[in-house]
Design a protein that fits this description.
The protein has 4 domains: about 120 residues, no CATH class; about 60 residues, no CATH class; about 45 residues, no CATH class; about 120 residues, no CATH class. Strands 11-12-13-14-15-16 form a 6-stranded mixed β-sheet, with no helix packed on it. A 5-stranded antiparallel β-sheet has the order 4-5-6-7-8, with no helix packed on it. Strands 20-21-22-23 form a 4-stranded mixed β-sheet, with no helix packed on it. The N and C termini lie far apart (about 200 Å). The longest helix is centred in the last third of the chain and has 42 residues. With about 450 residues, the protein is of the alpha+beta class. It is built from 4 helices and 27 strands.
Length: about 450
């Protein structure tokens, strides 16, 4: 009788099933599972159960549709998923809930992975596809506050971090920011990337340089520092015509550290450039204070290509071409000197010197290194280097190229010459003193003889 009723039911519903078979098909003649429906299912109740324990009715998985309980996720059209619960039990928090307004999951959620390791685990797999994309303001018609961002809070929402496109008071919304919250106060100037200019700001909402830091310093740990023009910022091989600044813990010896500012050049024995310290005032003219050239020479102020290890400008002004110290000390250790002999210069050399008074003109070098003599001058006394060179060449520095360098006199080199002249003069004075003593003695003897003759 049951088979006849079932057959009649199947004829009424349009199902097909051999009376002795276990599978039932609706709108299909070949059901492949217990109930195979070829079409839609209209469920008038609220629950759909999958029971694993018919005896106790305690181990069920079921889906529940509810418009009112709980009043979350919009409170309308919510699907709740429950795991391992008894059928007909009182309302409990579901394992998961989904509605048109959002979703809720009580455990781990995996997207692209069936083994989530965290509350939310997103995996792009081995294809390299983007793992996460967040869109907002897709029609570009809403306010800039509609732009996408992520918010993370703790301590009841009083402390947190926000990330996203937001522009604070400017409200243009085209800046990516990382903001911080502390004691319910948001600071959107913590970190900013301007999407248009690609400037990065730390502590500022309006960076105007590639990296703009406001309200703090930079602390670099380890051997790395700052590389310029793509130079590697550490103690390593030169990679090009570049520069870098870094820290070396053992530069002067073990644990004797130094901060290094280094000019590099991979193509020359000496770097062709240098390091300069400059100033600029309200006239926007850049003025050089110090030039450290790749030749390991130092030029002060306008001396950009020094010939000497340390060179000041040819300018008689105290603050430009002059230097002052308590003493200038010169190396003069006897261990450094051999093949010694008396100098060939002396009194006659000094007598041939031509000390003069003159107007000393200032000079500079142009960008090609050529000497430019200024009309500005001041009165001075001294020797003419070219004239002195004929008498004491050791006291004169003769330039290899007069178009680019000046003759110069080392006045300290005249000290031995003057000393020798004084010694020669002193010898002549002693000779004259000896002669005078002899003459004086002869005079006294003659005087006595004359007195004797007068008595006779």
């Amino acid at each position: 009788m049951k088979k006849v009723v079932l057959a009649s039911l199947c004829l009424t519903l349009g199902c097909y099933s051999p009376l002795l078979a276990q599978n039932v098909g609706i709108k299909t003649a070949n059901p492949i599972v217990d109930l195979d429906v070829n079409g839609d299912i209209y469920l008038r109740g609220d629950d759909l159960y999958m029971s694993h324990d018919n005896a106790t009715n305690a181990n069920n998985d079921y889906m529940n549709y509810n418009d009112a309980v709980p009043n979350t996720l919009g409170g309308v059209g919510i699907f709740h998923f429950h795991a391992d619960e008894a059928r007909g039990a009182a309302w409990t928090t579901p394992t998961a809930s989904i509605s048109a307004d959002g979703g809720y999951f009580s455990g781990r959620v995996g997207i692209g992975t069936n083994n989530p390791l965290t509350i939310t685990h997103i995996s792009g797999g081995p294809t390299g596809d983007p793992v996460l994309r967040i869109d907002a303001d897709t029609d570009n018609a809403g306010g800039e506050d509609d732009n996408p961002r992520i918010e993370m809070y703790q301590d009841g929402g009083t402390v947190g971090v926000m990330m996203g496109f937001y522009d604070g008071a400017n409200n243009s919304g085209n800046n990516f920011r990382i903001a911080t919250r502390y004691t319910n106060t948001d600071d959107w100037g913590t970190f900013t990337i301007d999407a248009l200019s690609k400037h990065v700001g730390i502590g500022t909402e309006t960076p105007d340089q590639r990296l703009d830091i406001n309200g703090g310093g930079i602390q670099i740990a380890g051997a790395y520092g700052i590389g310029f023009n793509s130079e590697i910022p550490e103690n390593g091989n030169a990679t090009g015509d570049r520069a870098k600044m870094y820290y070396d813990n053992n530069f002067y010896g073990t644990n004797q550290d130094a901060l290094l500012i280094e000019k590099t050049d991979q193509n020359n024995g000496y770097p062709d450039g240098g390091i300069s310290f400059t100033t600029k005032s309200s006239d926007n003219v850049r003025r050089t204070i110090l030039n450290l050239r790749g030749t390991r020479r130092i030029g002060l102020q306008t001396v950009t290509n020094p010939t000497y290890a340390l060179e000041l400008p040819n300018n008689t002004a105290a603050g430009t071409g002059r230097a002052r110290a308590n003493a200038w000390v010169t190396y003069s250790d006897g261990r450094l000197k051999d093949k010694r002999k008396t100098i060939p210069y002396g009194l006659q050399t000094v007598l041939n010197l031509k000390p003069q008074m003159y107007q000393h003109h200032h000079s500079t070098n142009d960008k090609e290194g050529n000497i430019q003599i200024s009309g500005e001058s001041s009165q001075d006394v001294g020797f003419i280097a070219q004239e002195l060179y004929e008498l004491v060449p050791e006291a004169v520095e003769k330039p290899t190229d007069e178009s680019k360098d000046l003759w110069a006199v080392d006045y300290t080199r005249l000290v031995p010459v003057l000393t020798k002249a004084i010694q020669e003069q002193n010898t002549k004075i002693k000779e004259l003193e000896t002669q005078n003593t002899t003459i004086q003695k002869q005079y006294e003897e003659l005087k006595k003889e004359l007195q004797l003759l007068k008595k006779e």
